[in-house]
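Hi all, posting the design record for the shared folder.

TITLE: backbone redesign
STEP: 1 of 1
STRUCTURE INPUT:
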């Protein structure tokens, strides 16, 4: 599959590291908005089918954080990071429509990224076949979806209402704990540890500072599942990404830390399994971001350009008989999925394709953010960065807009 977005990837202007942090003219205006979305009371957690009861307490709060940027021509974009497993189009499309109506922000200029934490609440239709919820738990999930929608719209509005002069800088660091999880065995691929499999340990860091040099926000990313904590963990948290954001904000009081999940569909933290390891990975990532912030960074300038396109991805061929046979399996989640697919056949709308959003935000010739929907494996990130290596820095995020 090859998607061509109309903004292209413009030729880069290369800057030397020296003087990268010297005071720069306020090329942009920047605004911040944040809304706490920690649910009140127990709620079913997403990410693992093995869980059999709602959440039991909170390790730390979950947040929506929005960064609004405006260039000298008045062009705007808003980048939103959300401490959730993923946003289905049933939520993101509603939010985008409301944002466009209330604030005049075009769909192409709103990026919605989720950290993919597996210790956050179920989000309505995301992974719906994984859970067999009773009426009360289904009601809580439905109501929580309304909280998310309102929180997203309000965070974007707050960010757009907070625009102040700002300068942007960019550099990359290196993480250390992501590991390819597609382990080859004599019986095929299993979920495990594959040290020889592809990974990308780059840590992109975008710094937003006031004209006086005060840090206002940092946007950073890493390609790794937020699955340090397993299905036996029932407390709400943002996993390592949540701890990293907390640590950065502790190191820089008054600044907002926004995590972007990159293409970590086949990457797990290694080692994993305890709260202590989630904190350790978060501190490690925050420390690397702090090192990058303290070093020389390249200035980022406008204008801001954006493109958004939805294509269709075709599934492997299937027949009704495939799902009828699956009804005999012992895995209840595969059986539930088979029933849903057979229902679609009965309604004469067998599911053959899925819509897939592709988005790009260009910061002049200095930086491009590519935002892909779904749970994208790291090979796409590596390929896009390789193909456009001559065009300048590229951040490739998965888990955007529709998961």
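Okay, here is what came back for every position:
SEQUENCE:
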């Amino acid at each position: 599959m090859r998607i061509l977005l109309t903004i292209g990837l413009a030729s880069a202007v290369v800057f030397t590291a020296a003087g990268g942090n010297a005071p720069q003219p306020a090329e942009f205006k920047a605004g911040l908005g944040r809304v706490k979305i920690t649910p009140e009371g127990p709620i079913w957690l997403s990410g693992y089918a093995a869980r059999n009861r709602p959440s039991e307490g909170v390790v730390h709060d979950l947040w929506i954080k929005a960064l609004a940027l405006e260039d000298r021509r008045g062009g705007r974009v808003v980048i939103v990071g959300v401490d959730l497993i993923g946003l289905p189009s049933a939520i993101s499309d509603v939010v985008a429509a409301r944002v466009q109506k209330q604030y005049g922000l075009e769909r192409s200029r709103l990026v919605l990224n989720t950290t993919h934490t597996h210790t956050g609440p179920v989000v309505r239709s995301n992974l719906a076949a994984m859970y067999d919820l009773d009426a009360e738990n289904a009601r809580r999930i439905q109501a929580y979806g309304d909280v998310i929608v309102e929180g997203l719209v309000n965070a974007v509005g707050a960010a757009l209402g907070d625009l102040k002069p700002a300068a942007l800088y960019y550099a990359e660091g290196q993480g250390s704990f992501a590991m390819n999880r597609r382990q080859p065995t004599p019986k095929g691929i299993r979920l495990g540890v594959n040290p020889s499999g592809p990974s990308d340990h780059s840590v992109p860091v975008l710094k937003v500072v006031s004209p006086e040099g005060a840090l206002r926000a940092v946007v950073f990313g890493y390609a790794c599942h937020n699955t340090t904590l397993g299905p036996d963990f029932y407390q709400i948290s943002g996993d390592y990404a949540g701890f990293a954001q907390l640590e950065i904000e502790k190191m820089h009081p008054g600044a907002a830390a926004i995590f972007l999940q990159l293409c970590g569909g086949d990457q797990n933290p290694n080692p994993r399994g305890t709260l202590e390891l989630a904190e350790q990975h978060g501190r490690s990532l925050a420390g690397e971001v702090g090192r990058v912030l303290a070093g020389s960074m390249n200035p980022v300038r406008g204008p801001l350009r954006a493109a958004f396109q939805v294509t269709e991805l075709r599934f492997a061929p299937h027949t009704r008989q495939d799902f009828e046979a699956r009804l005999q399996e012992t895995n209840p989640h595969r059986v539930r999925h088979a029933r849903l697919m057979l229902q679609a056949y009965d309604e004469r709308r067998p599911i053959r394709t899925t819509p897939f959003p592709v988005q790009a935000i260009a910061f002049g010739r200095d930086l491009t953010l590519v935002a892909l929907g779904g749970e994208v494996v790291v090979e796409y990130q590596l390929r896009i960065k390789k193909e456009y290596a001559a065009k300048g820095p590229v951040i490739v995020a998965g888990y955007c807009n529709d998961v």
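COMMENT: The mean pLDDT is 93.
Let me know if anyone wants the other runs.
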